Amino acid sequence: MAQRGGAQRPSGGGQGKICQFKLVLLGESAVGKSSLVLRFVKGQFHEYQESTIGAAFLTQTVCLDDTTVKFEIWDTAGQERYHSLAPMYYRGAQAAIVVYDITNQDTFGRAKTWVKELQRQASPNIVIALAGNKADLANKRMVEYEEAQTYAEENSLLFMETSAKTAMNVNDIFLAIAKKLPKSDNNARSCWMLQVITFKTGETM
Amino acid sequence: MDAGLSEDELVARAREERATIASRYRLGREEGAVIDSWEDPELEIYHTTDRYGFIHDGRLPQSRTKEESKQLDLEISRLPKWLKMIKSWDKYWGKEKFIKRVYKGIPDRVRGIVWARLLFLDQMKEEQKGKYEEMRRLGCKWSTDVRQIDLDVNRTYRDHMMFRKRYDVKQQQLFHILVAYSMYNQEVGYCQGMSQIAALLLMYLNEEDAFWALSALMASPKYAMHGFFIPGFPKLLRYQQHHDKILEKFLPKLKKHLERNCIDSGLYTLKWFFQCFLDRVPFPLTLRLWDVFLLEGERLLLAFAYTALKLHRRQIARLDMDQILDYLQKKLEKNFGYEDDYVIESLEKAMEELRKAKLDHPGAPPDHELPQQPFGMFTEPSVEKESGVRRDFTEEERLITERLMKRTETIALNGSHLSVDRGQSPLYSANALRLNLCPSSSPSFFSLASSPHCPSLSCHSSFSPSLRCAGKQNSIAVSHAPSLHHLSPPCHSIIHPSPLSPPPYALACSPPCLTVSPPSSLSSHSSPSLSTPPSPAHTFHAASMLRVPHCSSPFSSPVSPPLCSSPTFYKVSPSSSSKVPPPIGHSVFSFPTPISPFSSSVTASQDVSVVFVLWL
Ligand SMILES: Nc1nc2c(ncn2[C@@H]2O[C@H](COP(=O)(O)OP(=O)(O)O)[C@@H](O)[C@H]2O)c(=O)[nH]1
Ligand SMILES: [Mg+2]
User: Ligand 1 pocket, A17 CB below 6 A?
Assistant: First the structure.
């Protein structure tokens, strides 16, 4: 294996493993998807986070014991119109965070439809987390913690209430996902690689 | 959505919400206005405003103002010429001198006037007197997009003086333009992305003019943004395909590099095309591009997409997937790296280049990209629309989604092709292959589903950063590979899970043309034990690639593979059943017939693709 060019090797090696996971954020517009990502990736919060057109891509790495987990994050646009692009982003994702806004009951309803869609259409083993965001606005709460938690349990979702504004539970939810994602260990060799080679007529190998 | 509410209640609630939102914008910042503290910016003193009205941190480098003042002087010196041209517009408009001057940049002070002329706003207003008022009124009452527009006005250019204060005059205007437009053109309604365009127009035009400017951008055949924003985004796909064509012809190396890093142009062109590079290049350059856009129309989009990549191709060539996306999303906006004048000159050259190659324009739009209904007709929204219940995809949307994904997969597949490097390593037989592996961050194009025999196993489909297996079982899932069916020639796939033998496993797809046999040097080779990683020779050797002790398919009607106790070599052949590619979601596994194990090489009798699955 050493022949293979270390630089390109995505995982393995003696000093701890590196795992990469694709994670997608879904949820109604303005629930705080982009803000959660910004908080997680840059530790910042913008009161006037610009709206996401199409999707945005960011990465962040976290360490778990001896494993380095790199998240490749797709932050999607929330408007229904962009729903038709969503499969492009959640397809192949190993994890998803479905976000709603605890001050808005409708966004919770929309979160449930996203969960349903993921369960039907995404990778079968996708790890789904439900995030009740804007937890700092508890005085305007419209979705009860228990209601969401019960729903999450019934659907085996990770669940946390978060606040991108105060940073509450933001790193935690990503870490919880990282923990739940199956990581390679030496027995179950778990990294795959696909490669296509084309032979032109007459070529021999 | 809410189980508790009937449709009527939902509609009633939506109407009430609309009325509340609209009344807030009517009221603006007058006394009695309800403005949550979090919605309003505190006036921070460490801010400075640039000449375009954007507010920055006070720590901006001073050199910027130098450049700025140079630009300012230049603009002032050009102003008299422009005033003259504006005065006798008909004499200059469309003439070479005029066009040249637009390319040099319209001085900011007359930009609004010139934009208005370029878009024929006076005519539009004249032809439809009172229409804007009417649409605004109806929109506030009926537009089902009020809610989304409100959310977006609240986060559109809040770092610009004009849009900083909640419900302030320009926010009111922005809201009203968008609401009116969503009524005026109900096929587009409101789509995220339009608010920034409208805001830009408002920086240079008054409210009503900005409305008609938006309308011209959408509906005039010269700009035809309608096709971008309608459900399913049909024009986006067409433009992306054309963009790919341009890259193929003029920047093939860069295109390969992007593909190798699994970057489909869909990932970066959406915002470029939808908003004509707003927020993707520095604002002053954006304005210069918009000058040309309004002059030349939609071809600017393709030409500048090409120019941007061309100018940065060397830098991009050194970057991998994350970095490329960051570069295109963020870096270029912060600093484009070239002076604006140079960029525009390059753009002109690129346009010429494309024109000569007849690639400057993708041709007339298909009917479905064009407005189908007359504008400005009032119809009450359907209950479904008004209550906000999620609807299913339209046939059009479904189609577009499918095509988009197919595209992505095909590109990923092409990318993989290209990363193969036929090396001459002595470790391998003379003409063996050295694989130049895609980093695992690359999307794969396969949906590897879990096999019923191996339920704990999971692999992932396209865009999977790393394919992985959760189970300990040493067998692997079967490719579902819908993408392969879109390729030409159609490929069929088999996979080689093997409980006994070590990696690699291979998946081969092909027309019936690969004759496989172990080269003599390895013909008596036995499987290395599981604990040793496969040597390159094993890994890439045709013989081990094509060993198929056992196969299973998780799909409905798998062809049962022969179960073998000892390694056997197979010929890869397509499904006997038909030449028609199977529908997406169903794979045809063509199971091989054994061939003589002792001939010594593999020769392709026609073009063939082999897909390898390798353990890492
Ligand atoms: N109070 C509060 N506001 C938030 C929080 N997260 C996001 N927001 C605000 O909600 C608005 C929408 O956020 P954004 O991240 O753009 O939502 P997205 O459309 O889901 O990406 C912005 O004005 C944010 O500042 C949060 O945790 N608390
Ligand atoms: Mg967002």
Answer: no
Around Cβ B180, how many Cβ atoms within 10 Å?
Answer: 27
- B219 touches B375 (CB < 8 A): yes
**Cα Rg of chain B, angstroms:** 30
Antiparallel, parallel or unpaired: β B420-421 and B55-57:
unpaired
CB-CB under 8 Å, A54 with B468? no
pTM attached to this predicted model = 0.75
Would the CB atoms of B2 and A52 count as touching at under 8 Å? Answer: no
Measured CA distances, B560 to B373, B555, B589, B614 (Å): 54, 11, 9, 23
- Contact indicator for A142, A103 with CB cutoff of 8 Å: yes
Q: Are B312 and B327 in contact (CB under 8 A)?
A: yes
Q: What is the pLDDT of residues B454-493, one digit of tens each?
A: 222 222 222 121 222 222 222 222 222 222 222 222 222 3
Chain B neighbors of A195, CB-CB under 8 A = 416, 419-420, 435, 437-438, 611-614
User: Ligand 2: distance of its center to the CA of A30 in Å?
Assistant: 7
CA angle B227, B229, B233 (to 5 degrees): 70
Return the residue matching tokens 């570069």.
B327
Structure tokens at A144: 């009860």
> Which of B316, B252, B303, B247 lies closest to B277, judged by CA?
B303
For residues B54 and B99, the model is more confident at: B99
Nearest C-alpha neighbor of A131 from the set A122, A107, A123 = A107
Q: What phi, psi does A16 have (nearest 5°)?
A: 80, 160
Q: Give the atom of ligand 1 at the shortest distance from the alpha carbon of A164.
A: 27
List the pLDDT tens digit at each of the 205 positions of chain A.
222 222 223 333 344 677 888 899 999 999 999 999 999 999 999 988 889 998 999 999 998 887 888 899 999 999 989 998 888 888 778 899 999 999 999 999 999 999 999 998 887 778 999 999 999 999 999 999 999 999 999 999 999 999 999 999 999 999 999 999 876 532 222 233 333 444 455 554 4
Those of residues 111-150 in A touching chain B at CB distance below 8 A are 113, 123-125
The answer to whether B612 contacts A124, with C-beta atoms less than 8 Å apart, is: no
The pLDDT value recorded for residue B275 is 97
Q: Is the CB–ligand 1 distance for residue A107 below 6 Å? A: no
Using the predicted structure, report yes or no on whether residue B559 has a pLDDT greater than 90.
Answer: no
Residue with CA at minimum distance from ligand 1 atom 25: A47
Q: Which of B451, B609, B391, B432 is nearest to B521 (CA)?
A: B432
Q: Is A169 in the pocket of ligand 1 (CB under 6 A)?
A: no
Kindly give the distance from the C-alpha atom of residue B269 to the centroid of ligand 2, in angstroms, as a whole number. Answer: 18
Single out the residue of B474, B405, B416 nearest to residue B440, CA to CA: B416
Closest CA to B283 of B239, B332, B247: B332
Atom of ligand 1 nearest to the CA of B155: 23
